[in-house]
Amino acid sequence: MRYFLMLSSFIVLSCASFSGNSRGDSFQFEHLSKLNIGITTEQDVIGLFGSPTSMEEKQGYYTFTYIDSKTAFQRVTLNFASETHKLSGFVWLPKQGEKETSLEDVKQSFRNSHFEERRVFGKNPHMILEVVSYVDNKSGITIKLNSDGKSVEAIAMYDVGNRLPTSDNKNEQIPYTFGDELKASK
């Protein structure tokens, strides 16, 4: 009975997650170059990618999630500031077989970035979990590896304005374009 309830819940949640997205299966990593942290609005994103599969509101921000309709695989989550409705960051999840699953390929895409390796040990009573990521504090780009320590699980970019000075005026935030980093690397 418990198995049936879990399976039923999974099926209901899976079906519900496909409601809004018409283009999630056509996402390519290069599409993210059109996003400008601090400038792109939710309406810009909907214009580029269609309606999100799901939306979740939290204190101070909200997220759009896009799921590949063919594989039920989550592709990208975008965060927006509630006050401004402007993009504050995103997380891209590459599918197996895409070049973005290779750490070296991703680092090559961001040749101008200076990544520092970070290792964090998680808490689990049954095993020691080690999370390895590569972080560039200047651009706000983070590459998180899978548990195998070799393939990329996620690529994230967030507004660094809250963590690092972005101009002479500490209150002014200079928008950063993910595409600028990609273009500068070519």
Key features of this structure:
186 residues; alpha+beta; 8-stranded antiparallel sheet; two-stranded antiparallel ribbon; 4 helices; 10 strands; 20% helix; globular; disordered N terminus
List low-confidence stretches.
1-22, 162-186
Structural class by secondary-structure content: alpha+beta
Output the strand order for the largest sheet. 2-3-4-5-9-8-7-6
Main beta sheet, described? Answer: 8 strands, antiparallel
**Helix-strand pattern:** HEHEEEEHEEEEEH
Shape by Cα distribution: globular
Helical content class:
10-25%
The chain-level mean pLDDT equals 76
Total DSSP helices: 4
Estimated share of beta-strand residues: 25-35%
* Alpha carbon gyration radius: 18 Å
Distance between the termini: 56 Å
Work out the count of structural domains: 1
Number of strands: 10
List the helices and strands and how they pair.
Elements: H1 2-16, E1 36-37, H2 42-49, E2 54-58, E3 61-67, E4 74-81, E5 87-92, H3 103-109, E6 116-122, E7 129-136, E8 141-145, E9 152-158, E10 176-177, H4 178-185
Antiparallel strand pairs: 1-10, 2-3, 3-4, 4-5, 5-9, 6-7, 7-8, 8-9
